[in-house]
Amino acid sequence: MEVDLVTALALGAIIFLVYYYLFKNYQYFLTKPVPCPKPTLLLGNTGPMIFRRRDVSTHVRMLYNAFPESKVVGFYDLMNPIYMLRDPEVIKQLAVKDFDNFTDHTPTMTNSSSEETTGDSLFGNSLFALRGQKWRDMRATLSPAFTGSKMRHMFEFVAECGQSMVQFMKAEAQAGKELELEMKDVFSRFGNDVIATVAFGIKVDSLRNRENEFYVKGKQMLNFQSLKVLIKFFALRMVPTLAQKLGIDFVDATLTKYFKDMITDNMEQRKAHGIIRNDMIHMLLEVQKGALKHQKDEQDAKDAGFATVEESNVGKVSHTRVWSENELIAQCFLFFLAGFDTISTGMTFITYELCINPDIQQKLYEEIIETHKSLNGKPLTYETLQKMNYLDMVVSEGLRKWPPAVVMDRYCTKDYVYDDGQGTRFLIEKGRTLWIPAIAIQNDPKHYPNPEKFDPERFSEANRANINASAYLPFGVGPRNCIGSRLALMEVKSILYYILKDFSLERSPKTEVPLTLSKNLFALQAENGVWLTLKPRNTS
Predict the structure, then answer these.
(1) Percent of the chain, pLDDT > 70?
(2) Are 361 and 504 in contact, with CB atoms under 8 Å apart?
(3) Which single residue of 83, 218, 463, 479 could bond 312 by disulfide (Cβ 3.0 to 4.6 Å)?
């Protein structure tokens, strides 16, 4: 009897301690002058996402709009307190001016909590996941590869993929086939082909050879909705230290080996035969030789589109770090991830908007035809593409309404005292995470009147001065912004040019207006796909 009583008391004590720990955890924002929606035990404010009752865009916007008068709000991602920044000036202050306090992304989804030790993980060694000084050195290493001058050299590879894709579609149309296409699938294949040639130094054709090995393995690698990946995801978020000790990594080891071997073999072939090709593999070889340096390019600022983000001084400093082959190869994985999914998402939603706004599509088509005629039979060039003002306006507005990166995060690396100068002052402790909700800010009528309207004129020369640059974040903000914005914009603009020159985008019976967004945990995606009909134009 006494044993049973002791056991019951011990069990009761354990339950009390667990409950107290969980309850105490949800007291965090009660000690701060930061409003927060009421959390649910264990789930925090993330329950609607986990149980697929709400898509990521709607969820972020609901958190953002919960306290419309606040510059900073709080919420709980499961049991983790998160600060959400609502005010563009606060974002600028923390992510740019006080960047030294918020240099990193949240250290989950990697195999180490150390700044310097990242093991063999592809994701853990990528620029996105690196932290501290190691990130600074890698940023400075890679930055010279993404200038406008380097994009000019890579443009031929991107253009070749776009031309090949359109030639395939024209052949299908000439064979009498109706081109009713799911655009996310189309652009994932285009993005796959671009990254294959630009980052991996190989040529694949994912429209004609739909099951090519590079595409299939890439899709397997990025299948973030599989049960296995979801389990890894929650393990890395809820018990990151344990997950890291167990060697849990997002990317399957077999797939990791496939991509690593491909790059290594390509590099060895080039070294052995003196092959030079102006792509990412060549960039990695230049890094190994210490020959890739940051050079000032006066043309960069002149030809950059509105959405392009400029490199900070972090990317322009010199360093003496020697990178391992594995650390360099990991960067190609990051380019693959961005090209396969993020860029294809942007293209998908832009073509959807052009379809349901035929007047805008027609105006863009007229600019494309005018540009085409001005070339007098010569091929499209990077410089010519950058001169297309309305194209830049359309792309800028597409990325405003549908930013592929719905939110961005920053991790507090040392204690920071927030002070808005108006009486609100509190401590953000080291180890806390900030969210910057790009999709909510860019669809806030306070910053963009009538935000649901797709209106490229917002970005006309006459109207650009009215846009708060701190409220336009498709490629991030501060020194930790997207290093590949020029490459991404080059891909998006070139494929729009080639498609619209020969096809009009029209509604099909499957076109859903308005779109229903998928209730997945990660990406901005249409639940039933974005189906359009590509109708051949009567052009010579």
Answers:
(1) 85
(2) yes
(3) 479
